[in-house]
UniProtKB/TrEMBL annotation:
Residue ranges constituting the Histidine kinase domain according to the UniProt record: 319-534
Transmembrane segments: 12-35, 236-258
Residue ranges annotated for the HAMP domain, each copy included: 259-311
Protein's membrane topology: Multi-pass membrane protein
UniProt-listed Enzyme Commission number(s): 2.7.13.3
A Pfam family per the record: HAMP
Membrane found in the keyword field: yes
Subcellular locations according to the entry: Cell membrane
The organism's place on the tree of life at top rank: Bacteria
Catalytic reactions on record: ATP + protein L-histidine = ADP + protein N-phospho-L-histidine
Transcription keyword on record: no
Protein name: histidine kinase
Keywords: ATP-binding, Cell membrane, Kinase, Membrane, Nucleotide-binding, Phosphoprotein, Transferase, Transmembrane, Transmembrane helix
Amino acid sequence: MQRFLADGSFLRVYLALALALLLTFGLALMGLALVDRVRVEQYREQLAEAPLQLLAWRVTALPAHERGDWLTQQSDMLDMRLSLREPESADLGWFERRRLERGRVLVKVHDEEGWRLYRRLPREERILEARLSGLNERQLRGLAQMLGDWLAEVDGAARQRRLEGVTSEALPVQLRNLAPEGLDSHQLTRLRDGELVIRLLPGHWALTVHLAVPATDGSRQWLSIGPVSALEPTPISLLLLVLVIMLGVLAAIIYLIVRGVEARLARLELAAGRIASGRLDTRVKVDGGGFIGRVGMAFNAMAAQVQSLLRSQQEMIRAVSHELRTPVARIRFAMQMVEDMSDDPAIHRQLHGIDSDIEELDQLIDEILTYARLDSGMVNGAELERTQIDGRALAERVIETLAPLHAHLRLALAPGSEVEVEADPRYLQRALQNLVANACRHAQSRVLVRLSLESRLVRLDIEDDGPGVPAGERQAIFKPFARLDDSRTRRSGGYGLGLSIVQKIMAWHGGSVVVDDSQELGGARFSLLLPRGMNGRNKLTIKPV
């Protein structure tokens, strides 16, 4: 099931990335189509700007009763249908009417009706409409001839002003006193005879129209319209720009997808780490019903089940430990009564042995209760009260407490600088005392305690010159009631809970306990590793059971 879920998860991620790629490809095509459409519309408007400007000026200059006949005449000559329309009668939208009001040219292309060109007449509300099926040479010749006749009506500065009014970026118009360059003798002859000459520029997909314009003084000037260039393909630089934009959009989409999945998986990882450290009340916030949401729900259910099982186990251990104290107390009371009733030395020796066993059982119950109290705190999410502790003073107190009990051993604290530890003083002392007592049980003659500071942690080493711990058993000895068969047997004392209690205390402090070989004494070396720089926030105190 988990494998299927994992496979389904990756499949969904891959499908999401594939959809993102398809979406980006579609956006790229739409972007290119939109860019080409804008370029075509802009080219058409620039191309129609000068001719419509000329027609609008010519119509405006005529009396109202002559405009209809003139438009009909020009329609036949230019192979297009010219008419004047009221703004309300034209089939135009609000934005299109606003464009005409600002003096711009409007070009509408219909598949069936062809082109429709609109321009507002100067200083009037009416609109000039031109309908044509397409561009041809007849229109080009007719507009060029109309422009030449219109310029021939005036001379000097007035002619220049008219020329500047019809010049646009797509349709440049020039008036020279010298004959145009690049024409052969036949074209120059035709041009001098008053004909219109169209010249195709090789390699540029453009053409130029030349025309002679007579002046009032009998001289003439040479009118050049163009070059009129065809619409060029989309530039490579523009295509690269669109590609870069699309790749940026794709990268952003993939980043958002991966970031969302990573953020939710990071929450799962954080929750798993907190549960692994013993905070079983941790739960994952479930967002949505996707595969990660289902994993989060399964994770929460697992954590709740584990927490319930451990809580039940701890409650049973505490209950059993408490219930054991009552029969132990009755046995001890009965033993004291028997001791008072008899003076037989043999009986007293037996009773003394029973008393030692009862004392050992009491100590075992205390160890079990301590272990259950620590484990219960881990399950319920309680935290220790941490304060700043002088590590060397703490170690000296432990050595002073245990040294009289092991007179045959030399317990010593290695020299060094002062070390401050942020921890719960009671439980840290309990952990250190357990390790020193454990070392005393197995040492031959020496036990050494050493404190040191590392980059991110405080280290407390407890070394002895005993037989050491085999490498294969170094993880097992921290399990409850674990004992080694060779060097650490029941004859050496202990109940198999001391190291488990140390491990619980260190885990609760966010640290750890490790064991390896002592390089100086040759026996075992147990090390308490505590993180440095803990923040002193509000803590919950573990209350005795």
